[in-house]
Amino acid sequence: MATKADFTLEEWKTLRYAMVDTLTYLSVVQPGFIDMLREAGSVGLFIAEETKDGANQLTRDLALDVHDSRDRDLTVNPANIETPTLERLAAAAGLLTEKAPEDLGAFRTFILGIAETVAEAAGGVSPAEMHAIEKVRAALG
Questions:
Q1: What is the 8-class DSSP label of residue 49?
Q2: Which of 5, 20, 23, 116 is the most exposed, having the fewest neighbouring CB atoms within 10 Å of its CB?
Q3: DSSP sequence for 48-116
Q4: Chain centroid, CA 49 distance in Å
């Protein structure tokens, strides 16, 4: 099992951004202030549980590093976030395929868990959110 120490700073940033970009992407698919608050609370609990109970060290390390993960240059405009998010997810999956293939399944599960938690937080998954989750799944390979 890989840990944060097995990656360069730039590689780790790729994995961290994939995590937070997924959260942001799913949040803006179905916008709304109250929904955003519910989503933040739900995903916060999901990530906190991963830090304590996650079976994979890599995903625990990522969950512990979530506080410092947002790319300030990435806009949260729904029209501008999808492509870079999906590209970063594919890059993260490729990185793990190369450096830590034994952790790729856990990473996929963790990222999809974030996406699904955000989508479910505000009373059910909308068709737009389901479509976004499928795009996340496809980007992860």
A1: H
A2: 5
A3: HHHHHH-S-HHHHHHHHTGGG---TTS---HHHHHHHHHHHHHHHHHHHHHH-GGGHHHHHHHHHHHHH
A4: 15
Count the Cβ atoms, other than its own, within 10 Å of residue 67.
8
Residue 37, token pair as written in the block: 């608050």
C-alpha distance from residue 105 to each of 1, 21, 96, 122 (Å): 12, 19, 10, 27
Q: Both tokens of residue 13?
A: 């940033």
Q: How many CA atoms lie within 13 A of 80 on its CB side?
A: 5
Q: What is the spatial distance between Cα 135 and Cα 90, in angstroms, rounded to a whole number?
A: 11
Cα–Cα distance for residue pair 1/137, rounded to 1 Å = 22
Contact predicate 121/43, CB 8 Å: yes
Tens of pLDDT along 65-83? 876 555 555 655 656 788 9
Distance CA 137, CA 107 (A): 11
Could you read off the pLDDT of 22-56 as tens digits, one per residue? 888 888 887 665 666 677 778 777 888 888 887 89
**Whole-prediction pTM:** 0.86
The count of residues in the chain is 141
Q: What number of CA atoms fall less than 13 Å from residue 47's CA on the CB side?
A: 23
